[in-house]
Amino acid sequence: MAIPPGLAERAELGPDWAAWLDGLPRLASEVCADWDLTPDGPPQHGFCALVLPVTGADGVRLMLKLSMGERDNAGEVEALKAWRGLGAVRLEAADPHRGALLLERLEPADLNALDPLDACEIVGRLMSRLHVLPTPRLPRLTGFVLEWLADLAALGRDVPAPPRFVQQALSAGRALASDRAMTSAIVHGDLHYDNVLAGRREPWLAIDPKGFAGDPAYELAPMLWNRWDDLVASGDLGNALRERFYTLVDASGLDERRCRDWVVVRSMIGVSWEVRDARAAGRPLSAEQRDWITRCVTTAKAMQAVE
Length: 307
Description:
It comes from Propioniciclava tarda. GO terms for molecular function: phosphotransferase activity, alcohol group as acceptor. By secondary structure, this protein is an alpha+beta fold. The protein folds into two domains: 5-104, Phosphorylase Kinase, domain 1, CATH 3.30.200; 111-305, Aminoglycoside 3'-phosphotransferase, Chain: A, domain 2, CATH 3.90.1200.10. Helix content is 47%, strand content 13%. It is built from eleven helices and ten strands. A hairpin with a 4-residue loop joins strand 5 (91-95) and strand 6. Helix 10 runs antiparallel to helix 11. It is globular and about 55 Å long. The N and C termini lie far apart (53 Å).
């Protein structure tokens, strides 16, 4: 099995990634043999996973997902189990020790083909279904947020964002992290246009959750950051961002101010991640990273008009 080039590039991220990628073809073969699966299509990939179309022994067409384990996606299996296919892809089998998931096969169509506001309406309605009571084994979002905020604060003046946005994120983030809502629901953590696919059982189903016990209002930011070209084409970035924001809030029924604060918090954390990644690699920020930082700062600025 040939590893898709886009996934093979992750070897540049370090020796752990390189070792995982080297062993990936053998791992895929072993899991297919153990679960009596036959590959029936070209491999696909996400940022940290190989996704292989397969057919089971009973002839059912499924998808085998093999992931590089990371701390912030450790709750994926628990979230999928808890959702039981309601609003999300159905989990058929799992081997967490090998990072292997067997999932129902969905259609290739995602929300990128829809008008952005129509997509926000769909995602907002999905949120209200996914935000069910968390199970005890889900990782808690609070610890992650406090760690990310500490990293942001440690950068001090090296954060390439307006200081008032950074201080707003630190203050609001710490307050939100101490709120009882931080353990109130299962949070997907990465809901955006690519992570909602057309289904057969239901029109649209969420995939690839991070899986946290957290605050439902945490969810909105990825729907604002992605499909950026559509926002630029509107001619009024701030207003277009707020239109998406209000559509998501209205469709989900979430608290507007909490959602606003979380968008600012996640935007500044996103800036911090880019700076820290560049430092870890011993190089300046890349053009791609600078573009992403601009998105995050612009999104935080747009939220200043939300009262």
